[in-house]
Design brief:
2 strands, single chain, elongated, 335 residues
Amino acid sequence: MLEPRLILVNLLIKLGVAAALSSALVRSKEFKSLLFREQRETRHKIYLALWMAIPIALGVWIRFSAKSFLAGDLSLETTLLLGVIGGRLSGGVGGALLSLPAALHGEWAGMPLNVLAGIVAGQLRRVAPEQEDIWSFSPFIDLSLYRWIRRNLPRPRVFDWQIAFFVTIVGLRFLQTEIWRFWPNSIFSLESPGLWVQGGTWNGYLVESAIYLTVIMVVGTELKIFNSVRIQIKLEEQERLLLQARMAALQNQINPHFLFNTLNSCARKWNSSTIIWTSKSYALDGTSSRSSRISIRRLWKPWFPACCCSRWSKTASSTAFLPRSKGAALRYAAV
């Protein structure tokens, strides 16, 4: 066992390692596509487990090479994270991969514990009322209790997902402690030395509480980092949709002005030459000629008394181009 001060130092390093690894992983586009995918196929779940399990498995391997570096072992926390994000398959596969280096060095009990943790976390994901409950998990139990009380005051409900996830993390960490207590060489576990002396000491209980709190903090910190990137991606998507909506609104404003200017130009040249309207000239906005003729007739009905034929021509005259309401005498002849 380590001294209490060394345990606390390793706990701080563990938090830093978890934050650094999650920040490095979330920079990859492929990892983000796997992490934030709404519906995952089997291969996606396996890929997600490989992405997260391989770096942590290297940390477990380093623990055997450098005996003083115990903070690199994040196998239990990563298995819980994989299960709650990717489901039971990702949690089980990731737990087995994370425990493989330890199993090769004789720590046989770590693999069944991690596989169980991944499956339990994956089952919790299935019973979550909303996906936002997963991403909004907070390591601060006092805030979670406060939110739970506020939600249950107007409409009481027995099950709260975040409280259940918190209890699951504590329960699995306690199971790891008990396995280490009965079979010390079968599993790795940071434990306070003052807790197992006769009667225990106050300092030992404080250090043990810090160990349990660190497990919760690691899971919550990684979820918060992933959630911040997820929110940023959603904001960028909303900005893109807003820009598309603005461009579409601007285009809808420009199209009538373009039609007005085109017809106004034709009106200016009406007296100087014979204008023949063909089916192609009506398709100003990319629609069919029939729908374009109907639209033009509706918009310019005061100016055009008839636009129903495919071709029309107007004989040149000196008559001014006036609305029908003023009784302009226009002569049309179908070609």
